[in-house]
Amino acid sequence: MDERELFERHAERVMQFFVNKVRRPSDASDLAQETFVRCFERMRRGDVDHPRAFLFGVANFVLREYWSARGRRNDDAEVGSLSVAELGAPPNTTLGSLVARKEGQLRMLEAMRQLRLDYQNVLELRYWHDLKYDEIAEILGQNEKTIGVWLRRAKDDLRRILEGTAGPRRARDE
């Protein structure tokens, strides 16, 4: 797959990956551009076997850099254990930017904001981007069993948030 084809096929999805996880819509655009620049640089060197998975892996790395720089958090694991709400993404970014017109969709997006970033990413990559466990594992730098555990916990947390029975599980609760 060449650069143009990769961009045309995945530009919208990469933008969606960022848009509900950042402070401003313009940040999402900047991060999407940075993701493609870094991905294309590596592709030109010929060391990318799975372009789609690699692209989302770069997007995940760029997102973590973004929040580390803004949240004064140097520990990558800490960034992944916090929700975008805790990291500082305002609700209006999520609710105003995504194509979410119905009340149920808005409620789901708000609930997703409350999940830790690692769990939100797993859910989005699996169900919104239709990626397989092995691809998600490659993107997030985890093994497939961890992805399975995170997916189960993410669904449990999301269910609890939507039912209003409790908040999401925190890293210390695991």
Counting DSSP E segments of at least 2 residues, the number of strands comes to 0
Biggest β-sheet description: none
Based on CA atoms alone, the radius of gyration comes out at: 16 Å
What is the general shape?
A: globular
Low-confidence stretches: 93-100
Structural class: mainly alpha
Percent of residues in beta strands: under 5%
User: What is the H/E string?
Assistant: HHHHHHHHHH
User: What count of helical segments does DSSP give?
Assistant: 10
Report the end-to-end length measured between terminal Cα atoms: 40 Å
Report the average pLDDT across residues. 85
Helical fraction equals over 70%
Molecular structure report:
The chain is mostly helical and 174 residues long. α1 runs parallel beside α3, α8 packs across α10 and α9 crosses α10. About 5% of the residues have low confidence.
